Amino acid sequence: MTGIIIFFVISYVAGILSLLYGKKMVNVLLAVYAFCGVYRFVLTHYPSDQYVFWIAIGAGVIAIVLVKFAKNLAFFLLGAAIGLLIGLAVLNFLPEHPAYVSYCVIIGCALLFGFLMSHYNNVLIRYGTAYVGGEMIMTATLLLLFGSTVLPTMISEDAAATIGSLTEYMYGTFAQQYTLWILIGSVVLMFFGAAFQKKH
Questions:
Q1: Alpha-helical runs (H) found in the chain
Q2: Burial, 198: exposed, middle or buried (Cβ in 10 Å; 0-12, 13-18, 19+)?
Q3: How far is the C-alpha of 34 from the C-alpha of 145, rounded, in Å?
């Protein structure tokens, strides 16, 4: 049960901060996005990889170093992390396809948003961080509403294992079932969050 509580607390706290204060907290959020994006990508494509957590930690540390020493590259990485999440969402709308198509879509979205963020970072930071925050909040909320019957089956004594199982389910089977609702809610919250960030 502890793992489930930690999971939802992290999802809502990180989501709300990203949604409402993304531009002010961009340096911290960059490391969070790098960690979450890489963790989600590795877990989705290589679920049996025992080093997934440490790979994601490494991505977060690299993001922190880039913020300190290479600001433009850090903005590119921020856009790439957002593009990665959007690419993963887009895949759910595509018909059955070969594995290489998934990689092309994800890499293409990452490069596109990375380029845009590095050149138009002022506006895109607001919308990008608001979108990611909105997606985290919407996915967690829908999981509580429609996936509550599955949650007890994922409880284990190991909190880290519980979080891993929840993440794999939420961004795998559950995300595929509720992709449209997640996307609509994320976009609505994105516009709200971007407007809030502009005023504050």
A1: 2-21, 26-45, 52-69, 71-91, 99-119, 121-146, 159-169, 175-177, 179-199
A2: exposed
A3: 28
The C-alpha atoms of residue 160 and residue 23 are separated, in whole angstroms, by: 30
**Considering its fold, how many domains does the chain have in total?**
1
User: Taking the model in full, what pTM does it have?
Assistant: 0.71
pLDDT tens digit sequence for 147-186:
777 777 777 776 667 777 777 777 777 877 888 888 899 9
Task: Write out pLDDT tens, residues 37-95.
Answer: 676 666 666 655 566 667 767 777 776 676 666 667 777 877 887 788 788 777 777 77
**How far apart, in whole angstroms, are the C-alpha atoms of residue 42 and residue 45?**
5
Q: Are 77 and 63 in contact (CB under 8 A)?
A: yes
Q: Which long-range contacts (CB under 8 A, 24 or more apart) does 148-153 make?
A: 150/174, 151/4
**Residue range(s) defining the domain that contains residue 126:** 2-199
Phi-psi region of 49 (alpha: psi -120 to 50; beta: other; left: phi over 0): beta
Q: In whole angstroms, what is the distance from residue 1 CA to residue 4 CA? A: 5
Residue where the block lists tokens 């502890």: 2
